[in-house]
């Protein structure tokens, strides 16, 4: 609304902070990972031998916008799927070696 704009309010989406990362046990685990040799950490591993792999799951619905603005009496609408779609799994790996192939098809 104009009143919200005049006082500097904007619509935002919230975020989450994982405060448990700062617990003493987790700080200790982080120190061990970076400073101890294998199998307890990575201190004795060459950067060229690293492969960092991460995975995430994605639904088509999660890419939809959830917020919008409209005139009073009008709805914000967007076409979408009626049911849940299939889940896609994304895997991304980064190699520390410059000799590794740049792209791999899976």
Poorly predicted sequence stretches spanning 5 or more consecutive residues: none
> Helix-strand pattern, N to C?
HHEE
Task: Please tell me what the overall shape is.
Answer: extended
Strand content: 15-25%
Backbone CA Rg = 23 Å
Number of strands: 2
Helix content: 10-25%
Biggest beta sheet summary:
2 strands, antiparallel
List the total number of helices. 2
**What value does the average pLDDT take?**
76
Structural class: alpha+beta
Termini, distance in Å? 49 Å
**Biggest β-sheet: strands ordered side by side in the sheet:** 1-2
Q: Key terms for this structure?
A:
106 residues, alpha+beta, 16% helix, 15% strand
Describe this structure in words.
The chain is 16% helix and 15% strand. By secondary structure, the chain is α+β, with helices and mostly antiparallel strands. It is extended. The mean pLDDT is 76.
Give a topology summary:
Elements: H1 2-6, H2 24-35, E1 51-58, E2 88-95
Antiparallel strand pairs: 1-2
